[in-house]
Amino acid sequence: MKKARIFFLCIVFFLIFLLQSVFFVFITKINNLNKILNIKNTLYKIILHSNNIENEFKGFRINNDSFLLSIPSIDINKTFISNYKDIVIITKDKSSVSFTLYPCEFSIRKNKVVRFLNVKSIKITDCGYINFLCNINGEVVESDFYINRDVWLLPDDFKVF
Amino acid sequence: MIKKNNLIYLFLLISVIFLLIGTYLTVNAYLGMHSIEVASSQLEFVKNLPFCIDIGKNKKIPLYKENHFMKKYNFIKGCISADNYDNKPSIRQVGVALQHPVFFETKLICLIDARSRN
Questions:
Q1: Where are the domains of chain A?
Q2: Which of A118, A120, B75, B82 is the most exposed place for a label (fewest CB within 10 A)?
Q3: Can you give the pLDDT at residue B118?
């Protein structure tokens, strides 16, 4: 085989190896990014629907790694049920974040758990704007969103997780 | 007739070109997704402050606070601009544009109610 052809093949295989590595790294990063955006969107929807932060629910006491939000209950006709509320528990275990919905007995909503794995850290601060910072496998996303309401949902500069 | 070896080299070259395009698009997709997050965060701040940007002027972002992504990838630059929508002073069109390296740009546009309140 000629030297030129060997050189050409070496260059081509090196390029293929390099490009596939970059491709793999960025596909993994996009996957992590998608997971983070899913967490953010879930949180955003919950905060959008909720109207209060709770201190206790059926013996479940909040600690540094969790918080409770209440959502007004709705019945089968999609009207609010007075004096009843559905509870969402947001917890952070070692490497996962879960959103658990506990509806009241008359609510049309069903029990639901959404769990996201490999979450290294998550921070939510509420100072008018809700600042969301999440880290999954080294991929960090910081984003802000605003909920148009008079009462701040979380205490000022309250760090969750 | 094209030799068998030459045909293999040709296919190798074509595969490298496709891989190059695919990798480029993947990297840009990643940067684009992040840029949309940055741009939407900036628009969230501006949404309630319609008069903070003068009409026809560009301001560099991040506007109010540092953004983790823009700090990490400092080659990504962006600006925010405002204009009257359809020549109506009561509606402002605010746009955030982020430039990625080589030909790509992410742009988000938002319409804001700019009626003055007393």
A1: 3-118
A2: B75
A3: 54
B48 and A143 within 8 Å at the Cβ level: the answer is no
All structural domains of chain B with their residue ranges: 4-113
- Please give the structure tokens belonging to residue A110: 């069903």
The residue among A54, A121, A24, A144 whose CA lies nearest residue B38 is A144
User: Looking at residues B37-60, what average pLDDT do you find?
Assistant: 83
Which of these, A23, A31, A137, A28, lies nearest to B26 by C-alpha position? Answer: A23
pLDDT of residue A1: 64
Token couple for A90: 């947001």
Which tens digit of pLDDT belongs to each residue from B70-102? 888 888 888 888 888 888 888 888 889 988 876
Q: What is the pTM of this model?
A: 0.83
Q: CB B23 to CB A22 under 8 A?
A: yes
- Angle subtended at Cα B44 by Cα B42 and Cα B46, rounded to the nearest 5 degrees: 70
Where does chain A have alpha helices with state H? Answer: 3-49
Residue of B nearest to A24 (CA): B23
Which residues on A lie below 8 Å from B72 (Cβ)? 140
Q: How many whole angstroms separate alpha carbon A134 and alpha carbon B110?
A: 26
A30 neighbourhood in chain B, CB within 8 Å:
26, 29-30, 33
